[in-house]
Every structure is written in C-alpha cells, then in structure tokens.
Amino acid sequence: MKVKEIVRMVIVLTVVCAVWGGALSIVKKVTEPQIEYQRIKNIKAPALKKALVVDYDNDPVKDRIKVVVGKDKRGRDIVKNIFLAKKGGKIVAVALEAYGAGYAGNIGVMVSINLPSETIGGIAITTHSETPGVGTRAIESKKFKDQFKNKSITTNFAPGSGTIDVVSGASYTSRGIMMAVQHAVEIYKKIKSKIGV
Amino acid sequence: MSRIVQEFTKGLWKEVPPFRFVLGLCPTLAVTSSVSSAIGLGCGVIFVLLVSNFLISMFRNFIPSKIRVPVFIVIIASAVTIVELSMEAYFYSLYRVLGIWIPLIVVNCLILGRAEAFARKNPILYSIADALGMGLGFTLSLTTLASIREIIGAGTWFGIRVMPSSYIGFKLLQKPPGAFICLGLILAFMNFISLKIEGKNA
User: Fold this and answer.
1) Contacts for B73-78 with beta carbons within 8 Å, 24 or more apart?
2) Which of A57, A90, A96, B114 has a 20 to 30 A CA-CA distance from B148?
3) How much is the CA Rg of chain B, to the nearest whole Å?
4) Can you tell me whether residue A24 is helix, strand or coil?
5) pLDDT value of residue A19
6) Using CA of residue A184, residue A186, residue A188, residue A190, what is the dihedral sign?
C-alpha cells in the first residue's frame, strides 16, 4: 500500500511535469522569432536608425541575415545579425553591432558601412556602462563620432593609429568605441562574400 | 445554473480578491500607477487563473493530496511562462512596463489560493466560473485603484489627459505609499457599504 502510494505520486508528478514541459517548449518555439524581432526592433533599432545615413526604403530589422563570424572558446558558432538597408531592392548599406572594451565593461557600437563605396556611414552606441558625465562625453560627442564618417574600411581605426582623435578626459571610452568600430570593419571584411556584396 | 452564477459573482463583490481577502497585494500596489498596465496584468492573471483552475479541477481526483502543492505550482508556473512569452512576443511595450511582475504572477497568493480552496474540491464548471469571477474581480479592483491613482496622481486616464492642463498632479498617489492609502480608503468604503446593506437586511 505504502509503495503503491509512493509510485503513484512519482508517476503523477512526472507526467504533469513532462506534459507541461512539452507544452512550454512548443510555446517557446512558436514565439521565439517574434520575440527576437521585438527585442531587436525595440533595443537595437533606435541605434540602427541613427547609424544608417543613407536613403533606404526597407525595414533593415526584417531584412537581417544571420552570419557565422567565428567560434567561441567552447567551439560554438558565434552568430551575428547583419542588417541590410536596401533601396529599390539593391543593398545600399549594411549595419552590424560590435563591441569594444571601455572603461567599465563593453561598449556596443552599431556601425553602418555604405555600399558600394565601402565607407563608414555612421556609428551609434547601443549599450554601455561608462561613467555618466565623464566617459559618456565621448558617447554623446557628435564631433567625435563624425570623425568615422566617410572613412574607407581600409583605414585602421584601432587606438594608437592616429586616424581618430579621442575626446580628452574620456579616452578609455573613446578607445573602446574605436576598437568596436575596428572590430566591426574586420567582421565585415570577413563575411562580405557571404552576404553577396 | 444558479450556483454557477453565484460562484461567478462572488468574486465581483462579496469575495473580491485584493479588497476582501487582501490577497495578491504586491502586484496590486506595484502596477496600479497606470490603468493600461493594471488591465494588462489583470488579463494575465485571468488567463493563469482559468488554466490552473480548469486543469486542477479536471484532475482533482488523480492528484494525490500529499503532492498537490508541487503539482499546482508546476501548472501555475507553466501557465505564467506562457503568458510571459506571448506577452513579450506580441505586446512588447506592455511587457516592458510590467517587467518582473509577470513572472511574479506565479507567487500571487490569489491563484494558489483558488486552486487550494476551490478548484481541488469542485467540478470543472464551477471552477471556471470561480476563476472568471475572481480574475475579473481582481482586474476590476486593479483598474479602479489605477484609475484613482492615475487621474488624481497624474491627471491622465489611459495616458490621455482628463484634468485641465494646469493640474500638476498629486505625486504621492503615483508612489507606492499612495497606493497603500488608496487601497485602505477603498477597503473602508467597501466595508461601510457592506455594513449598510447588512444592516438593512437585518
């Protein structure tokens, strides 16, 4: 009797968990693409809009493609979203997000590259945790960010190369942004052939 | 039939959850600073309550009473996760506003309370009526509280300005303590009316 009761409890709980677990995974599967779209649209799209300076007539968030850009330490693929801005069906710019180490953690920068000239269109910061009022001056400085504009992707943007002037007093943040741009350009060169431009 | 009506309507006045049972207060105080978020959370609670009451009542004879609480929690938590995922996918702005309060529906005493006190002892139809009544009562209470807070506190209703533009708002009501004060006043008012009604009947 005792054993029977225990077995019954185990079976009931197992069945309940299994059925609900299955149901949850179905819901997750169904909602996943929509959730990803919403996240990108609400978190990344404002920066994307700022970074893209060319005229385009599509929704770059919808026309994004996923590209494998390398492998992480555990050997899993690193997948990046590449946003394509099109005008009349032709790709006029691509935008991608890359990271560079700032003063406090990584700075996310959305970089757009105009095509076919292969020059930087504009950059916009997506995420950062820099000191307000100090490091953020580089993030807010239009003059600093405008230095990247129209520079060819063959330019070396890395700190110390002398192409970009840092914002004084916010040099760590400036360097972080420069590294992120450099990183984005390198990723672009690597995956260029995969997006067919 | 009359019992179904009775089970449904008791949630609307006689046993209206946040005011009578004073259950589920945490989200009540937190999300009632605007009417739209109050209704959003209310809808989430109605859905979870319906699913949990329905399933628990359907399987009430199969669930051994010793493990009923874990089974209830699994059912409730899964329903809440469904709400969370679909809200993030289709009502993103609402999802951002409600934030942590959506997963916290799991620990809303109201839901476990109804499962424990009602659904596990009653047939499906009554349980559904109970869930709808209680859920609606909860949503209406939240909406009432939120309306008072939003109109007096910020001068808007559903985000639309209802007070003259010179009205600067009563900031206290927008803050959690203001919710407490409002709740207390509503509670007192409802008790006052109930006493009046009872006095007449007696």
Assistant:
1) B73/B106, B73/B112, B74/A13, B74/A16, B74/A17, B74/A20, B75/A16, B75/A20, B75/B51, B75/B115, B76/B48, B76/B52, B76/B106, B76/B111, B76/B112, B76/B115, B77/B106, B78/A20, B78/A21, B78/A23, B78/A24
2) B114
3) 18
4) helix
5) 93
6) negative
Q: Quick check: A42 and B88 CB within 8 A?
A: no
Q: Tell me, what's the pLDDT at B160? A: 82
Q: Is the dihedral of CA B19, B20, B24, B25 positive or negative?
A: positive
Mark out chain B residues that contact chain A at CB-CB < 8 A.
62-64, 66-67, 70-71, 74-75, 78, 81-82, 85-86, 88-90, 92-93, 96
pLDDT in tens, A100-148: 998 988 999 999 998 888 888 889 988 888 888 888 888 888 888 888 8
Considering only CB atoms, which chain A residues are within 8 Å of B92?
Answer: 38, 41-42
- Average pLDDT over chain A reads 86
Predicted pLDDT at A75: 75
Query: Which among A83, A18, A88 is positioned nearest to A47, based on CA atoms?
Result: A83
Domain ranges of chain A: 46-195
Q: Which single residue is written with the structure tokens 């330019």?
A: A155
Q: Which one-letter amino acid corresponds to residue A80?
A: K
DSSP A153: T
Cβ distance of B89 and A31 shorter than 8 Å: yes
Please, are residues B40 and B98 in contact by the beta-carbon 8 Å criterion?
yes
Average pLDDT over every residue of A62-88: 81
Contact of A156 with A184, CB cutoff 8 Å:
no
pLDDT at A26: 94
* Amino acid at the residue B38: A
Give me the pLDDT at residue B202, please. 60
Q: Does residue A159 have a cis peptide bond before it, meaning omega lies within 30 degrees of 0?
A: no
Q: Indicate yes or no: CB of B85 within 8 angstroms of CB of A27.
A: yes
Which site among A5, A25, A35, A42 would you substitute to test the B interface, given the most B Cβ atoms closer than 10 Å to its Cβ?
Answer: A35
How far away is chain B from the Cα of A20, in angstroms, using its nearest Cα?
Answer: 7
List beta partners, residue A78. Answer: A70
Could you count the other beta carbons within 10 Å of the beta carbon of residue A132?
Answer: 9
